[in-house]
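Why predict the complex rather than its parts? Because the way molecules touch one another can change local conformation, and only a joint prediction can capture that. The input here totals 1023 residues.
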Amino acid sequence: MTEPLLDVQGLTMRFGGLLAVDGVDLTAERNRITALIGPNGAGKTTIFNCLTGFYKPTAGRLLLRHPTRGPIELQTLKGYGVARTGVVRTFQNIRLFPSMTVLENLLVAQHQALMPRSVFSLAGLLNLKGWRAAEEAAVDTARDWLRRLDLLAVADEEAGNLSYGMQRRVEIARAMSTNPLLLCLDEPAAGLNPRETRALAELLAGIRAEHGIGILLIEHDMGLVMDISDHIFVVDHGARIAAGTPAEIRNDERVIKAYLGEPDADDAAHAGGDAH
Amino acid sequence: MAAPIPSPTGPAMPFVHRLREAVIAGLVAMALAVPFLGLRTVNLDQGLVVQANLAYVPLAGAVVFLGRLILGLLAAPLAKAAAPLATWRPPAGAQRLRPWGGPLLVLAAAALPFLPFANRYVIDLGTTALIYILLATGLNITVGLAGLLDLGFAAFYAIGAYTCALTTTQLHWGFWPALAAGGLASSLFAVLLSLPILRLRGDYLAIVTLGFGEITRIVILNWQGLTGGPNGVSGIARPTLFSLTFDRRAPAGGHTFSEVTGIAYAPEHRLIFLYLIILALTALAAYTVARLRRLPIGRAWEALREDEIACRSLGINPTMVKVSAYATGALMGGLAGCFFAARQGFVSPESFGFMESATILAIVVLGGMGSQAGVIIAALFIVVLPELARGFADYRMLAFGLAMILIMIWKPGGLLSGRLPTIRLSNAKPKPVAEAA
Amino acid sequence: MGFTLAVGTFLQHLINGLTLGAIYGLIAIGYTMVYGIIRMINFAHGEIYMIGAFIAVTTFTLLLGAGVTSVPLALVIVLAISCTFTAAYGWTIERVAYRPLRTAPKLAPFISAIGMSILLQNFVMLTQGARSKSLPPVMTGGITLWHDGDFSLGLTNIQMFIILLTVALMAGFTLVINRTALGRAQRACEQDRTMAALLGINVDRTISLTFVLGAGLAAVAGVMVTLYYGVIDFYIGFLAGMKAFTAAVLGGIGSLPGAMLGGLLIGLIEAFFSGYVSSAYKDVAAFSILILVLVVRPSGLLGRPDIEKV
Ligand SMILES: Nc1ncnc2c1ncn2[C@@H]1O[C@H](COP(=O)(O)OP(=O)(O)OP(=O)(O)O)[C@@H](O)[C@H]1O
Ligand SMILES: [Mg+2]
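Output of the joint prediction:
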């Protein structure tokens, strides 16, 4: 590991008079889980929105070191262009295609790969062999992720009808079906029960071990964060206030101070600690 | 303080309440009836005079009172009786028959002109219904699949029709090349129009499409030199079968269908031929849409309808998806327009007003957005119902408007509102390795 | 001389445009209020205006027959009767065709509204006949502001009446929306209907009142158009409705001042474009400007931009 996969420098996002993100630096590496934590309203989701092309940052540089395409400045890309470089996200308030089935959700995610294989839909319209093979491969990819996330049984259900925990898993499966380089998860454990959270931790550890991709994780569940992160960045009021390993962060005074006013987060940290 | 009036369909509403509701409804009806049923302005030579037919007022009140009361009393038992219908699902075996439904329907439709009861009138009506099915199949892509409300679809219909009219009369093209040109011109127009407005969302998009529809109509109406203005274009080439015409006499250097086949000339042949052409076009369009839904582009259309932001987060370019949806829908609208022009032999701007767009949209929504079977049922309903009501001549449009309201209240999602998945994991061939594991 | 003539012509178009714009603006308010509160395009609103115009014609004819000669008295009676009955139509339409669809998919009420529009048009055609109705001029006279040879710049009494009444209604309306409990209830329902209901606002009644008010204003517009042109038929609601709806969107749908501004702009564009360029293409000009404005400002001139929350 020489240079990090993602290198964010001086990221700043201003909404009118509100400075939501203030010169944040952070990095994410392959085969690592990097956590981004901070109290409510700290600017974490805004950082994701800038990173994934939903907001145009006021200032800053978002450098992705792509293994084949070389260095890419993400802030110069159009919204959908970012996902095409392999930076794929999930949303804090789940965004599935609710009346499509789970399997269809995962196939839409493979649009980029499938589109050329359907040769402007012509090969697909004529149902040519090359297209059929491509579609089967896409279904296989989807099936693998459904199996890993224990969603096989609901593959043909409408995504919008599933329980909250399942919908969160579908969103992760959908993001992984795109074969990403950097997976950005916005509070994936929110609303999950302890058992589901444990399964999530195992899944993320598994992805880290097997897929050679980077994971960037926003999470309020401190137990989960301390448990599986390799590196943690802490933001408060838009600014980065600390960075380090879980052990370092746990004892960082500024972090404790930032969270002290927030009994919720404090509780979460205790609850997480007990889960070991 | 007025007590809240309970819902009229509530099961446990006491009779007094129903009575009260019905009385209120009757009184309101009487009030509404006064200026229109009770008083009539009549044009006489010396100017307007008002005639009073006040007897209509209590009549209207009584009809509404009784209707309301009876409906209220019947609502609960009717809903109970209809409950099994709502939850009815076709038996498991029917699943396998599904793929055969389309071809069987096309075969049955193709046989229609040869059935004993099929006279000119039936074939003509069938042709009109098929034109609307084709139009609505196209609009269904934009509205039903991609979720982009389009209130100006008749513009694409018009462009197809005028392209056909002008290429055959000015450039002396035959019907078939003109058909292709009509579809392509419409499609191209859709691409050009949609590019600047894709940023708009929802209702703003709707009003802009309405604007484009009107602009197209007004330009056609006023560009006398090209389109003939309100007089329209006549003498449009009729379709030919391998260059055989369906006229009584062959044109110079050509042959007629009856000469070559030896079948005695009959004017119905042309009607049947037209019917079969539009049936083939419509069947092809429906098949194409069914296939497209299973392709990445079709799935992207539906995904865009569901959540544009999620689409972007997966690397899908919403602009391309929207433009392709407009272009594909317009292609079908253009084909329908071109066929329409060739069938009539004449086009004029009044066939492409806003009511036409609204009718096509109504077919899509009444049928159940995104559903091809729904489009067919709704198109038949919209074309055939006013014909059936011919006996009531003047009242048919009134009944038509009323029916649209009632169907929406009865089935707000359209007649066939369920969405069929484009693929099922249980049907997909599993990977052999996975089976072994 | 040529210059002053040019100015005179310009002013005449301006006056005509303002009059037309006032009428469009009054109809547009109905679209915008309904859209604001239930996010629905009340497609039948143009027919409401047409109904208002028909009731005006009937009432005027009755009054003339009864020998009422005082114009102000006739106007007051006609306005009162037309507004009352038209408002009853507005109330009924919401109750019958839209309220059952309040939780339905977005397009269902829209299709129901198209059905309602067809129904009302044909209802009026059947009951009142398809031929156009023309009234003898009720209000005549006016003032000549300026004249020069053949050209004279005039402001008719009808135009004055239309513009003044519109200004008064607008002022009154703004007060209602900003100051009264009804206005507050309306704004609350716009923000969050469920929450408003939980806080004890009678949502159904607020929505009904919105329709009633919108229909009342449309009826005023109907009376004005009856006076101004003297001829109406069962089909006038369609075009006027479409223009007014365009005006509402141009101004920013959901915004009251926006509707008025949009109405004025559409009226002025029509008048000036017909006067200086081509009357055949006046609607093309109106729609083109709408499209241009929306491309630059996707939520209209005075509409609040809706932020895309991620
Ligand atoms: N589009 C926007 N326009 C204006 N302000 C915004 C916008 N998006 C976010 N903000 C503001 O930026 C600040 C940071 O919000 P953000 O959603 O990034 O916080 P967060 O760290 O994700 O919080 P949480 O843990 O609650 O999800 C907040 O004050 C928020 O109101
Ligand atoms: Mg957040």
